[in-house]
From TrEMBL:
One of its GO terms (molecular function) is DNA-binding transcription factor activity. SMART domains: HTH_ICLR. This is IclR family transcriptional regulator. It comes from Caballeronia calidae. PANTHER family: HELIX-TURN-HELIX TRANSCRIPTIONAL REGULATOR, ICLR FAMILY, TRANSCRIPTIONAL REGULATORY PROTEIN.
């Protein structure tokens, strides 16, 4: 957000607080943890929390005093789900992937230069990876789903994303330099799916395929993640093919939903 826009810093900080609350899901977050996670000072964090509570975006439990995502976020999420045409179909695809693989399956969406996990479903294999949870947010390229999205963009957009995230990658993701991610983009395009070999958290591997909107924009990615022993090369290709098939199925659903959506009424000409 541009620093020249009046109030931009306050909005940016409020969203930082809201995302920190959302990441904790049903566990909630206390003020001290929120201050650490957002790197805001305590008075600022508390003031922003009160503003978000007033708008229904955050709620505070009166017993534990922990903060949780509010009902208004649920309302907005439902509207966004209708707008992007994902909803139940994406959840069904993720559940199907978890059943077929026995491992954990995910759906992440693109948020400009970031990827945000929104759905997770666990299969029946007893040993699981817990790195990615709904609300987890990484720069594009970090993690299998995030890399699948980055690789599906055109070269100019890849360059923009890497440039905007360069400082964050250097500070917080030492395994993910821009030069490394350019090589991974090329490999992902060659394979047709992405692979993360434990670079976010050691021992937690993932395979993913990008999902496009009817207009061709990258809207998200489907991922299967497992412990290292479950994702050796042969199985990477097996699951990669499955993910690509399911991504195409989801894209077909989005195309049908878009075709059924009523066209906006044209504005009446003045004087008619």
């Amino acid at each position: 957000m541009s620093e020249n826009v009046p109030g931009a810093q306050a909005v940016s900080r409020a969203l930082r607080v809201l995302r920190a609350v959302a990441r904790t899901r049903s566990a909630g977050i206390n003020l001290a943890q929120l201050v650490r996670d957002t790197e805001l000072n305590k008075p600022t964090a508390h003031r922003l929390l009160l503003a978000l509570i007033a708008e229904g975006m955050v709620e505070q439990d009166p017993q534990s005093l922990r903060y949780f995502i509010g009902r208004e976020c649920y309302v907005l999420g439902g509207i966004a789900s209708e707008r992007f045409g994902l909803g139940r179909e994406a959840a069904d695809v993720v559940a199907r992937l978890a059943r077929a693989s026995g491992d954990s399956a995910f759906f992440s969406i693109r948020s400009d230069v970031f990827a945000v996990c929104v759905l997770r479903e666990d299969g029946d294999y007893p040993l699981k990876t817990h790195v990615l949870q709904p609300g987890t947010r990484h720069p594009l390229g970090v993690g299998a789903g995030s890399l699948a999205m980055l690789a599906a963009l055109d070269d100019e957009e890849v360059d923009r994303c890497l440039k905007e995230n360069e400082n964050l990658l250097r500070k917080s993701y030492p395994n993910f330099s821009t030069s490394f991610l350019r090589r991974e983009v090329a490999l992902t395009r060659e394979r047709g799916f992405s692979v993360n070999e434990g670079l976010v958290v050691s021992g937690s591997w993932g395979v993913a395929a990008a999902v496009h909107s009817p207009s061709g924009e990258v809207v998200g990615a489907l991922t299967i993640a497992a412990v290292e022993s479950r994702l050796q090369v042969d199985r990477q290709h097996e699951l990669g093919r499955l993910l690509v098939e399911e991504a195409k199925r989801l894209e077909s659903h989005l195309a049908r939903a878009s075709a059924m959506r009523p066209e906006p009424k044209a504005k009446r000409a003045r004087g008619s």
